[in-house]
Amino acid sequence: MSEIKECDLPGIGKKFTLELDSGDKLVVVIHSSGEREVFKFTKDNDEPTSVTTLSDEEARQIGTILSGTYFQPVIEDEPKLMMKNVTMEWIKIVPDSILANKKIEELDIRKTTGVSITTIIRGETVIPNPSSSEIIKPQDTLIIIGNNEQIKNFLSTFEIKQHLGK
């Protein structure tokens, strides 16, 4: 496996270069805007033989495919992503939820259900990998991950009647 070389492109973003086993090179430029450009250079050629530009979302979808994860298209009313045996669910916290106004650590979610909270979306703010001291607030959207049984256990344990995946 080749080493990935990384360098900063001031005012633009970052550049990653991977030399392939064939001797060809792939260069990925990630712009500060989130846009990605992928350049393919054949062995001993300084000019790219192909260039592809991807939006941030497109790049993430391609990344999911390339990583070997099974990708199932998301129906607009059902933002659920299936990855082999792993499911992600979007849970909207209603004001009277058992989860509302409590720290993640006091709920002991992972220990009791096996589910992990990967992200909290609070209005326009995204909190990736929230700390155990983070307080879950009404109107937050939780992105949780686990297998199907763990997700069902979470929904039952915390009396979630409606979620964005159903």
Automatic annotation (TrEMBL):
Residues 76-160 form the RCK C-terminal domain. PROSITE patterns: RCK_C. The keyword Ion transport applies. It holds the Pfam family KhtT_N. The keyword Ion transport applies. Keywords: Ion channel, Ion transport, Transport. It comes from the Bacteria. GO terms for biological process: monoatomic ion transmembrane transport. This is Regulatory ligand-binding protein related to C-terminal domains of K+ channels.
